[in-house]
Structure to design on (194 residues):
């Protein structure tokens, strides 16, 4: 589903990514690891279509609407409630039976009671849970998660563990993390950046 060949990314004189090659089959799980500054976020932004490679080729066999992405920022409208956010994204993605799907995600991620609160009142962990709901709302074929466990408490991390376990083999996953031991049992391939 995804093939990267000799990918490089520069920001002016600074090289963020150098000569990275990898492939991920459909329904595969690529675990991306490496220290801060190794290019994990840059690579995931390339896969998500949020940046373009300076050199090399990246081929993704999926439509843009079939991608779910969670990055370092939750990409939510802070002045809207959680329900208003997901309803908006549901309409943008033309999610069938979106109210039912939204309710199910709120229940699954423990946000049902807080669905009418404005996002600016959410803790970082709640915002991360809501960002995960946003990324999963349209049931994407490709899920790109950049440090998805960041800001999650143990209960939130356990919810994400269960969600990833349920998605393995049914969706294509590209996940970066500083804690690879947590999810490496699910990975079908691994890319260590330096």
């Amino acid at each position: 589903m995804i093939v990267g060949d000799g990918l490089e990314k520069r920001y002016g004189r600074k090289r963020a990514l150098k000569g990275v090659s990898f492939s991920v089959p459909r329904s595969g799980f690529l675990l991306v690891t490496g220290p801060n500054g190794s290019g994990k976020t840059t690579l995931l932004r390339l896969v998500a279509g949020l940046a373009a490679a300076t050199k090399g080729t990246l081929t993704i066999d999926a439509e843009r609407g079939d991608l779910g992405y969670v990055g370092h920022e939750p990409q939510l409208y802070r002045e809207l409630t959680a329900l208003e956010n997901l309803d908006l994204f549901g309409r943008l993605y033309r999610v069938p039976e979106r109210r039912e799907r939204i309710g199910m995600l709120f229940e699954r991620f423990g946000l049902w009671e807080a669905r009418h609160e404005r996002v600016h009142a959410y803790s970082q962990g709640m915002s991360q849970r809501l960002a995960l709901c946003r990324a999963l709302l349209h049931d994407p074929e490709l899920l790109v998660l950049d440090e998805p466990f960041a800001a999650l408490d143990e209960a939130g991390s356990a919810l994400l563990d269960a969600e990833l376990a349920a998605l393995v083999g049914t969706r294509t996953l590209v996940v970066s993390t500083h804690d690879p031991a947590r999810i490496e049992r699910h990975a079908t391939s691994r890319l260590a950046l330096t």
Observations:
- Helices lie at 40-47, 82-92, 98-108, 124-136, 154-167.
- The mean pLDDT is 96.
